[in-house]
Design a protein that fits this description.
elongated, mainly alpha
Length: 88
């Protein structure tokens, strides 16, 4: 354990940031699953709404540093393919 006050503060802040990053990643997974189920059901309005919410959350996570920008781009691409529906 750290003895210096600033070190204690850094440990506490790092733990809080880690939990926030976990919340972002978990929420992204949840919204991705919701998009997949909406795409399977075929409800176009629900797919559009879920895709918009997922893309917005991914952008926010990348901006905060919770997700690497290439990982965010990959997840947005996968979501766009899901939202586009099956290939003709």
């Amino acid at each position: 354990m750290p003895n210096i006050r600033q070190q204690k503060k850094r440990v506490r802040i790092a733990a809080e940031e880690r939990l926030e990053n976990l919340r972002y990643r978990s929420s992204i997974k949840t919204l991705a699953k919701r998009l997949a189920t909406a795409a399977e059901s075929g409800d176009t309005a629900a797919v559009e709404e879920e895709h918009r919410a997922l893309a917005k959350l991914i952008d926010r996570a990348v901006a905060r540093g919770a997700l690497h920008r290439n990982a965010g781009a990959r997840k947005k691409s996968q979501a766009a393919r899901l939202a586009a529906g099956p290939r003709a």
